[in-house]
Design a protein that fits this description.
Elements lengths: L20 E3 L7 E2 L1 H4 L8 E3 L7 E2 L11 E3 L20 E3 L10 H4 L7 E3 L11 H4 L5 E3 L13
Parallel strand pairs: 1-3, 2-4, 3-5, 5-6, 6-7, 7-8
Length: 154
């Protein structure tokens, strides 16, 4: 389902239950609530929420999905959202071009299937030892962050 640039302020209620990919980029969504996704879309593997104005994502909001790819780039997030409900399925996460200043070990360590992580163009000055606790990670994008030297962690 492609709802690109529709001036939406929230995730629509009338999306078909059997949707597998949901594209909502370039809208005016500011918040993702549990009721937007929880137990509604059992076949959902991809969600694109790029270029909105999202500042918060409620914990547990993707319960009941099999989400593999989540694009949250170009929003106003200050931290990586709680994605515990999709820790066994999520392989790609893009949170580039947000306002994230720190990433704690516990914010990522449970995402054991993650192969691609884009955290470029944020405000990160330090990183936890990502390679140590994310062995499945193949691609890590860090450009345009004001990182202090952390070469041993990458």
């Amino acid at each position: 389902v492609n709802l690109y640039g529709r001036n939406l302020t929230s995730v629509p209620e009338d999306i078909a239950r059997n949707v597998t990919r949901l594209y909502l980029p370039t809208n005016d969504i500011t918040r993702i609530r549990q009721s937007d996704f929880n137990d509604k879309y059992p076949d959902l593997v991809g969600v694109a929420l790029s270029s909105n104005r999202i500042t918060s994502i409620e914990s547990g909001c993707f319960r009941g999905t099999i989400l593999e790819r989540l694009q949250l780039d170009s929003n106003e997030l200050t931290s990586i959202p709680d994605l515990h409900e999709v820790n066994n399925t999520l392989t790609e996460l893009n949170v580039s071009s947000n306002e994230i200043t720190t990433i704690a070990f516990e914010k990522l360590s449970y995402l054991t299937k993650l192969t691609d992580l884009d955290i470029s163009d944020n405000r990160l000055s330090t990183l936890p030892d990502i390679a140590q606790f994310m062995p499945s990670l193949n691609e890590l994008y860090l450009k345009d962050n004001p990182l202090d030297c952390c070469c041993s962690n990458v």
